[in-house]
Amino acid sequence: xxxxxxxxxxxxxxxxxxxxxxxxxxxxxxxxxxxxxxxxxxxxxxxxxxxxxxxxxxxxxxxxxxxxxxxxxxxxxxxxxxxxxxxxxxxxxxxxxxxxxxxxxxxxxxxxxxxxxxxxxxxxxxxxxxxxxxxxxxxxxxxxxxxxxxxxxxxxxxxxxxxxxxxxxxxxxxxxxxxxxxxxxxxxxxxxxxxxxxxxxxxxxxxxxxxxxxxxxxxxxxxxxxxxxxxxxxxxxxxxxxxxxxxxxxxxxxxxxxxxxxxxxxxxxxxxxxxxxxxxxxxxxxxxxxxxxxxxxxxxxxxxxxxxxxxxxxxxxxxxxxxxxxxxxxxxxxxxx
Length: 337
Hints:
Elements: H1 3-16, H2 21-28, H3 32-39, H4 47-56, H5 61-64, H6 75-112, E1 117-124, E2 130-137, E3 141-146, E4 149-154, H7 158-169, E5 173-177, E6 180-185, E7 190-199, E8 204-212, H8 215-228, E9 233-237, E10 244-253, E11 256-267, E12 273-287, E13 290-301, E14 310-316, E15 319-322, E16 335-336
Antiparallel strand pairs: 1-2, 3-4, 4-8, 5-6, 6-7, 7-8, 9-10, 10-11, 11-12, 12-13, 13-14, 14-15, 15-16
Helix pairs in contact: 2-3
């Protein structure tokens, strides 16, 4: 059956009868929307409605359905077959229309659902040569390397990639340093100093900037060397005029800034008899232009001398000036060169 031809025929007969779609629908007890569907070839009237429709339009069911050969035609069966065809056509159209939407939904889910990351084992060769590990968001492709920069491309969403990169960084040691947080991989001994996620139309690029070793310690070591005019050296107070001999060693072992302090007093009245006032060791750090010495072990000390756990020195022109001088009964000011 040609549904468009049937629909056009019904529309013409309705107009000949001077009826609107609504008026025709009211006469046969259907909606104007149902009449509109018939006339547009989108559906066929049921057999029960066809009889009323034929009567209102002053015609026959055969004429409505454009059936020329009336012999051996079972109208009810024919209509059921045609209705089944229409249903199949309808669902085919729905499926065709749905496919693009399903693709869009799947792509959206792919971009929005986190899948985690895998550990990528990469050779790091800039000023070194060792195997390192980096967190690669899943479904990444086209890995690129340039000196201290490692990049991955990924078609998923920027926010999802951000969460997966952070998930990886949380497995590393976060080191606050100079108002920034660096991530240190203690196993591979590298620092991730920065990461970026930049987007283009179809993909995003995840880039890690890395440095060999503990980057924060390296920065501190550089700063300390400049302020102390060197590292791994002794700062002393030892003159003919002073009765004190102070030796303050500052250095670095592995990833720790270490210090030792030795203070001796020579009594000139008693033929320079030596009295050990302090022999301690600990760690140190520099904040702005102040050096803090944290004593972690006291090897020897003068029994009646009160020694603080922490001593602060002002750094000025490469010299160390002791603040809150606990040695003032021996020397009014302690300035180490």
